[in-house]
Fold each of these.
Amino acid sequence: MTITVEREQIDNGGDDGSRLNGVARQVLNGWTTGRILKKSESGALVIFNTAAGQSITLPAIASRDLGMYFDFLVTVTGTGTYGIATSDAGTFIIGGVDSSSTTVAEGGDTFAAAGSEVAILFDGDTTGRLVGTSIRLTAISTTQWAVSGTIMGVGTLATPF
């Protein structure tokens, strides 16, 4: 389900430039099967909130799409897999995520996506499917998404890549 809000936005008459007022971002949630994000949804907050799991496919990146980004947030602890995949086998994820564990002295790791990964899988309590996992993916080339954020888990955490 897509929630959009229309608001007044532009003031382009002053000598100090344009103003953009009343902006609200899209919040995407509530789907139960795989979903392909649209380029026009760039900037949206994508919420994983179905415990059985949800999957997302990122849009393909053209050169005019550089800077397109999506934020992801887990709001319901999963029992299935929350997955994010690139659009094809030739588009990769680079960067990394920090980790926090609800178990004392088990968090604090950083997991790197070295550039050969095509998916992020929050498929266990140790790989980020707990409430609070929050990441951002940004298109930085026609074949790369940069990832940053924090995964939440319990116990000895593991890579979601």
Amino acid sequence: MEKMSWIKIMVLAIAIVIAGYFVGNMHKVAKEYDRSVKVKGLSEREVKADLAVWPIHISLAGNDLRTLQSDIKDHKDQVYQFFLNQGFTEEELTVGTTNINDANADMYGGSSQNRAYRYFAKTDFTIRTKDIEKLQKALEASLDLVSKGIIIGSKNTWRPIEYSFSGLNQIKPLMIEEATRNAREVAEKFAKDSQSKVGKIRSAQQGQFSINSRDENTPEIKIVRVVSTIDYLLED
């Protein structure tokens, strides 16, 4: 009986030692896993817009509806021909609807007696092209239409042409790679200062891509930007 008791005590002691080892090792692993550094990596690209949209309208006013309708057709034809002469294709030009307002039917426009014209017409045009340079030249040449008495206006007078970049998918992999590389460089600098080494990635979060104009004067030049957040484990 006494011998069996000693055996039980020895087995219990060994079990306690083994359990202590695993508990201590788990605590060590947990502490190592808890040692990490979270850094951000930036990637930027300057690209040229590859699509331009210029929404415009033709404005006319008159007192005789039939004459106004005839003038509208004449101006529409001249504007359409102007853009064809500038090198645009029919697929790049879209003629929208024509709206005519009657001042006498405007309940909230006040008295129409002091108005020079009764009818006001507006016809929409949209120029959509990938040839950015051609559209910019057309914008400058559009003053020729004014000299012919054709008044065109842009929906956005401050920035008449809308520029966009559609090639994000082509540059996205390289930008993510660059952002990740930059993030690791920052992590290695931190690890060096703390006398550690950069280990595996603990977690990573890819930020959203943003596309903005470089500045107000050159909206056709875009800045593509992404910031990745990466959490690296640190090792001794």
Amino acid sequence: MSSKKVVIGAVVGVAAGAVLGLLFAPAKGAMTRQRMARKVANSAEDVQENLSEYIDATVEKYDSVKQGAVDLVDKAKKKAASATERLRAR
């Protein structure tokens, strides 16, 4: 399962749980709005944290793939130069 799907699933789950909890909780309107505001703020922080982690992981993967590509190109250049030298030596 991709990280993106996990983050989206977590966000949806938190939001659904918060809404259901508030709907079934016996409290006054003002208290319910305060609770809802706190839960939304907490959920927003969680989303921001998860998104930051996802971005960091993506950047690390990109850097790794980029370095692998650079290494592969360097190896190909060396093999091409070696093959060219062998052909010239004939």
